[in-house]
From TrEMBL, chain A:
<keyword id="KW-0539">Nucleus</keyword>
<keyword id="KW-0221">Differentiation</keyword>
<protein>
    <recommendedName>
        <fullName>Calcineurin B homologous protein 3</fullName>
    </recommendedName>
</protein>
<keyword id="KW-0649">Protein kinase inhibitor</keyword>
<comment type="similarity">
    <text>Belongs to the calcineurin regulatory subunit family. CHP subfamily.</text>
</comment>
<dbReference type="GO" id="GO:0005829">
    <property type="term" value="C:cytosol"/>
</dbReference>
<dbReference type="InterPro" id="IPR018247">
    <property type="entry name" value="EF_Hand_1_Ca_BS"/>
</dbReference>
<dbReference type="GO" id="GO:0033628">
    <property type="term" value="P:regulation of cell adhesion mediated by integrin"/>
</dbReference>
<dbReference type="GO" id="GO:0071300">
    <property type="term" value="P:cellular response to retinoic acid"/>
</dbReference>
From TrEMBL, chain B:
<dbReference type="InterPro" id="IPR018422">
    <property type="entry name" value="Cation/H_exchanger_CPA1"/>
</dbReference>
<dbReference type="GO" id="GO:0086092">
    <property type="term" value="P:regulation of the force of heart contraction by cardiac conduction"/>
</dbReference>
<keyword id="KW-0813">Transport</keyword>
<feature type="compositionally biased region" description="Polar residues">
    <location>
        <begin position="781"/>
        <end position="791"/>
    </location>
</feature>
<keyword id="KW-0564">Palmitate</keyword>
<feature type="transmembrane region" description="Helical">
    <location>
        <begin position="263"/>
        <end position="283"/>
    </location>
</feature>
<dbReference type="InterPro" id="IPR004709">
    <property type="entry name" value="NaH_exchanger"/>
</dbReference>
<dbReference type="GO" id="GO:0030346">
    <property type="term" value="F:protein phosphatase 2B binding"/>
</dbReference>
<feature type="transmembrane region" description="Helical">
    <location>
        <begin position="486"/>
        <end position="509"/>
    </location>
</feature>
């Protein structure tokens, strides 16, 4: 896989990422969760834990098993980064579709914290609570009702009419794709690797 | 153009044309009265005032004040005092019962007449839909202007030319403010680099390319144009090279193109104002000098930055002041919109004062003040601002185009085939080359590249308009004696771009299958996902150690939240996170939509029956958690609902222009809200159903509204003394219908068999069937006890407008 990735990003970018990796890991070959604590700006991020978790999620690392890895090496680091590469002009329909699905799968795994393949109401509530966690004075109820409303909306988009005794288990990946139909994630979910000159090297 | 409702009644379509003709005919005698004696009463008085009043056939600037009018007031007063005083040697006249004093009201009257003409034209175009589908409104208006101008000329008067001061000071600002206030900021910022490059580099390229080539053409012998120097040509180039926001708006609004292209062309037309201002002043100055030194060029370069950044800076200052002012307007809601308008206009004028870019100041002010002002002002003020801006900008646009037509007829022209044709040709070539070249450069840095289709639309959408015309008109005739030729060429280019390009762009867009604007409704899911994505990307950037786009945006947001919002937003709303604010906004919108649709009788057809039960079946006593709406929001929602559904029952005790007296029924409502809060605990035992219309979040507000607005829930019980008596006012024509409609809605949604028994009960108790399909009840009782249900029901419903002393009594339904 690494070779495939090498085709998609320039070697310069890989060098930069390698340098950064070494910075984070303290010159060790692998990174653990604790190493992410050294990044000061990440403290302010409300979904910090989910992001860090995503790096160690075996599903994202394209490993066959499930669960969380304890540590990741540089190849895994690059694998995660590859989810954020920008779109290319010469992609055909199939490639574009695959590209899009990859990114959405990454997001899906972030929402679905218990790895059961669907986003339940509780998980969704968790997401909204985390998003609003920067406001300590807020009541828990607000977050929950927003999540409830969003879930219901999702259910009505994905399933439509429902009888009262039908239960909507959770958002599966197909439903997730349906919800995201209107948003062009392939252009939004990327980091500008091109501007690597502006990397802040904190020695 | 801003779409106005189409009348659609075949017989009525003749009316606007009748009005039109009447208006045109009305213009004639008024213009004729130029030379008439304005006031027979003054005939005896000092006759030397009159030559001042009669301005003759000067190619008069529109509405420059006749000097005679102010002087007339004095002779009038003098006259009357003389008359009543010591009986001057005057012939005794009978007291004139009816007199004509046209000159006094002449100016406002003519202004109003022109504006009325403009509005009637707009009306007329929309009544005849076939024409307006093919021809954009701007073209039609120019044609009307030509006709009016021709008419005036035919009468023998000289039609007014578009006065540049009027244009820049009164006609242009509303359009720009409207554009700036409602600018889609996210897309604008995302594409800012592209827009700036098009605006600055593109305009410079256009100006110099065109100016240079025109100079070359002028030098070619035999055309008689040798006397036009390089600088004059460059000045001409700089005037005509700027893409005009008014024309772009007018045409692009009708074709509904996708947002990216729209913001690119429109943003370019706004931001190139700075370049135009600098180049214009630069060449105007230099044209008088003999030589241009390096210092001058350097100064010009510096002045560009000063002009643009200075304009933005002034705009930001005024924006902040406006936001700060709006923080304190909670007691005088009526004048809130006025603050927005005044501060923005002052920003524009202040920038113009220093020869900075007024347009950029206006845009900056609108963009900066908007998020804070909207958090502070009431909903009504927000609506007022929106509609006033749309109204003014619409009228301005119409007037501008009409006057373009009139000025074409009125102005002095000097047609020179070579000059005009070559101008037109080189304009087009310059635009195409510029766009192609710049796009090639820009695409290296863009993630979403611009396709050739996009490039074509951008090139084709470079319309010129009234700004170019007015700038040229401002030129001093003594320094630029070829001004007439310039004017002719500019008008030709404007006509070409507006007519040919404006008319053909719509079929071309369809032909090329350019992506159109997607009408997506903003949903709460999207908002959550967008925010999540933003945070995710910021996090990834931090992990990479890469201070990119998201990193800085996040920093700005944090700064905004921590410091700025506290200063500029009043009260609790300063701490409200964006997600909550969005949620409230959506609830408000849906409450209004429900009310409005209820009024017309539309029943939401695609009602999804998804409810809490469907997504959370495990915990039987599901809590209906009501999001904590702030008191203000509740007030507003309540007010809107009440105003619409119970219009007849509202009685405002006193009304004066300065305050809107609070409703006398507020107390009752407040008490009820208090009671409701106590009762919330009881809800935990109840099964709550909530129906969600497709893609809409049905909030408890809505359900409350539906229940609360059904008057049938409260039957008048004349036999019981201690019941609130709420009657439907039969005298009002509205309430029976609203009753029926609301009832229909409920019936439709709850799918109840319309039985008389249920009719009487309304939606009160359904103890037997807790799970009837798609029940609309917010509170179907499960196994809980009836009294608490009753109390809940009573508490959560609107007790009606008439405060009864027995309000606290339990309401016993018939069945019980």
């Amino acid at each position: 896989f690494l070779s495939l990735f090498l085709l998609l990003v320039t070697s310069e970018q890989i060098e930069h990422l390698h340098r950064r990796f070494k910075q984070l890991s303290g010159d060790q070959p692998t990174i653990r969760k604790e190493h992410f604590d050294n990044i000061p700006d990440l403290e302010f991020n409300p979904i910090r834990s989910k992001i860090v978790h995503a790096f160690f999620d075996k599903r994202n690392l394209r490993q066959e098993s499930d669960g969380l890895a304890d540590e990741i090496n540089f190849e895994d680091f690059l694998t995660i980064m590859s989810y954020f590469r920008p779109i290319e002009m010469n992609m055909d329909e199939e490639q574009l579709d695959h590209f899009r699905k990859e990114k959405l799968k990454f997001l899906f795994h972030m929402y679905d914290s218990d790895h059961d393949g669907k986003i339940t109401l509780q998980e969704y509530r968790n997401v909204v609570e985390e998003l609003l966690s920067g406001n300590p004075h807020l009541e828990k109820e607000s977050a929950r009702s927003i999540a409830d409303g969003a879930m219901m909306e999702a259910a009505s988009i994905c399933v439509g009419q429902m009888e009262p005794d039908q239960v909507y288990e959770g958002i599966t990946f197909e439903d997730f794709l349906k919800i995201w139909q209107g948003i062009d994630i392939e252009t939004k979910m990327h980091v500008r690797f091109l501007n690597m000159e502006t990397i802040a090297q904190c020695h | 153009m801003r779409a106005t409702g189409c009348l659609g009644v075949p017989t009525l379509h003749k009316l606007p044309s009748v009005f039109m003709v009447a208006a045109l005919l009305g213009l004639l005698p008024l213009l004729h009265s130029h030379g008439l004696q304005p006031n027979p009463m003054l005939a005896s008085e000092a006759p030397h005032h009159y030559p001042a009043v009669v301005r003759g056939n000067e190619p008069g600037d529109f509405t420059s004040a006749p000097p005679g009018i102010s002087e007339e007031i004095h002779p009038l007063s003098k006259h009357s005092s003389n008359h009543t005083g010591n009986g001057h040697s005057k012939p005794e006249k009978a007291f004139p019962v009816l007199g004509i004093d046209y000159t006094r009201i002449r100016i406002p009257f003519e202004i109003s007449l022109w504006i009325l003409l403009a509005c009637l034209m707009k009306l007329g175009f929309h009544v005849i839909p076939s024409v307006s589908n093919i021809v954009p409104e701007s073209c039609l208006l120019i044609v009307v202007g030509l006709l009016v101008g021709g008419l005036i000329k035919g009468v023998g008067e000289s039609p007014p030319i578009l006065n540049s001061e009027i244009f820049f000071l009164f006609l242009l600002p509303p359009i720009i403010l409207d554009a700036g206030y409602f600018l889609p900021l996210r897309q604008f910022m995302e594409n800012l680099g592209t827009i700036l490059i098009f605006a600055v580099v593109g305009t410079l390229w256009n100006a110099f390319f065109l100016g240079g080539l025109m100079y070359a053409v002028c030098q070619i012998g035999g055309t008689g144009l040798n006397h036009i120097g390089l600088l004059a040509n460059l000045l001409f180039g700089s005037i005509i090279s700027a893409v005009d926001p008014v024309a772009v708006l007018a045409v692009f609004e009708e074709i509904h193109i996708n947002e990216l292209l729209h913001i690119l062309v429109f943003g370019e037309s706004l931001l190139n104002d700075a370049v135009t201002v600098v180049l214009y002043h630069l060449f105007e100055e230099f044209a008088n000098n003999e030589q241009v030194t390096i210092i001058d060029i350097l100064l010009g370069f510096i002045s560009f930055f000063v002009v643009s950044l200075g304009g933005v800076f002034i705009g930001i200052i005024y924006g902040i002041v406006a936001a700060f002012t709006s923080r304190f307007t909670s007691h005088i809601r009526v004048i809130e919109p006025l603050f927005v308008f005044l501060y923005s206009y002052m920003a524009y004028l202040s920038a113009e004062l220093f020869h900075l870019s007024g347009i950029m100041a206006l845009i900056a002010a609108g963009v900066v003040m908007r998020p804070y002002v909207e958090a502070n002002i009431s909903h009504k003020s927000h609506t007022t601002i929106k509609y006033f801006l749309k109204m003014w900008s619409s009228v301005s646009e119409t007037l501008i185009f009409i006057f373009l037509g009139v000025s074409t007829v009125a102005g002095k022209h000097y047609w020179n085939w070579t000059f005009v044709i070559s101008t037109l040709l080189f304009c087009l070539i310059a635009r195409v080359l510029g766009v192609l070249g710049l796009t090639w450069f820009i695409n290296k840095f863009r993630i979403v590249k611009l396709t050739p289709k996009d490039q074509f639309i951008i090139a084709y959408g470079g319309l010129r308009g009234a700004i170019a015309f007015s700038l040229c008109y401002l030129l001093d005739y003594s320094h630029f004696n070829m001004r007439d030729m310039f004017l002719t060429a500019i008008i030709t280019v404007i006509f070409f771009t507006v007519f040919v390009q404006g008319m053909t762009i719509r079929p071309l867009v369809d032909l090329l299958a350019v992506k159109k604007k997607q009408e997506t409704k903003r949903s709460i899911n999207e908002e959550i996902h967008t925010q999540f994505l933003d945070h995710l990307l910021t996090g990834i950037e931090d992990i990479c150690g890469h201070y990119g786009h998201h990193h800085w945006k996040d920093k700005l947001n944090r700064f905004n939240k921590k410091y700025v919002k506290k200063c500029l937003i009043a009260g609790e709303r300063s701490k409200e996170p964006q997600l909550i604010a969005f949620y409230h906004k959506m609830e408000m919108k849906q409450a209004i939509e429900l009310v409005e649709s209820g009024g017309i009788g539309k029943i939401p057809s695609a009602v999804s029956t998804v409810s809490m039960q469907n997504i959370h079946p495990k915990t039987l006593p599901v809590e209906r958690i009501l999001p904590a709406l702030s008191k203000d929001k509740e007030e507003e929602i309540r007010k809107i609902l009440r105003n619409n559904l119970q219009k007849t029952r509202q009685r405002l005790r006193s009304y004066n222009r300065h305050t809107l007296v609070a409703d006398p029924y507020e107390e009752a409502w407040n008490q009820m809200l208090l009671r409701r809060q106590k009762v919330r605990q009881l809800e935990k035992k109840m099964n709550n159903y909530l129906t969600v219309p497709a893609h809409k979040v049905d909030s408890p507000t809505m359900s409350r509204a539906r229940i609360g607005s059904d008057p049938l829930a409260y039957e008048p019980k004349p036999d019981s003394e201690n019941l609130p008596i709420i009657t439907i006012d039969p005298a009002s024509p509205q309430s029976p219908e609203s009753v029926d409609l609301v009832n229909e809605e409920m019936k439709g949604m709850s799918r109840l068999p319309p039985s008389p028994e249920e009719d009487e009960e309304g939606l009160v108790m359904r103890v037997k069937e807790p799970s009837s399909p798609g029940t609309d009840d917010v509170f179907t009782p499960g196994t809980s006890d009836s009294p608490s249900n009753q109390r809940m029901l009573r508490c959560l419903s609107d007790p009606g407008p008439r405060p009864e002393p027995e309000e606290g009594e339990p309401f016993i339904p018939k069945g019980q």
